[in-house]
Every structure is written in structure tokens, then in C-alpha cells.
Please model this.
Amino acid sequence: MLTINRTLAIPDDEIELSAIRAQGAGGQNVNKVASAIHLRFDIRASSLPETVKERLLALSDQRISQEGVVVIKAQQFRTQEKNREDALARLRELIVQVTRVQKKRRPTKPTRASQKKRMDRKSQRGRTKALRGPVRGD
Model:
């Protein structure tokens, strides 16, 4: 059972984990040991609430395929167990990201004092630049 927060959890049978060989440098060990983890999680077939599913599917994340399957490949660590934990943690973080409701932004206006201050700075800067012109000695 992958616990997302106090009210949300994903059963283990909805997450497909398979061991694969890791890519990259690593010498002989990388060629004979399947230490990387390939995680697949079907969003549409999951037991997540509909709102969470919709938000996940609306994400523009390269790990989510067109069919609505999250694919995570974890190969950072040398052991299969650590890579499994890493893959599950990354899935958890992805789901936590969409469960947080963003606070609605309330548009604000700059205060009158800050507007005046800005205009004063602009005119002062303009005066400074005007003094940089060529020196004219009639």
C-alpha cells in the first residue's frame, strides 16, 4: 500500500514494478544485475478520486503517456530496493503535487506611495542620463 496522505492511498496491485538492467557506466555489475526499476501506474484504472485523476491527466508531464499511464524509471542507486523506494517516492510526489490545491491569486494594485516612488526614480534616472550628453561650450 502506497500512502499518499492521511486520506489517500494506492493498493500495491495497481502499481506494476519490474526490474530491468540499468543503463550507463557501471562496469561488469551493470551488465549482469537487474537493479533498475520500471514503474507503471495506470491513472484511469486506479482507485484514485476522479478529481485527482483529472488533474493528473491534465498535467503536461513527460512521464505520463497519451494512454494515461505514468512510467517512471529509477536507476540512480546500485540496489534494487533503493531504486524501488525511489520510484515509489517519485510517484507519491507526482500525486501529492496535484492533490495540493493552489491558492487563488487575488489581483492587487500597487499603493499610491509605491507608484510615486517609482515615478520619482524614473525621472531621477532620466535626469542622470540627460547629463551624460556632450559638453557644449558656446
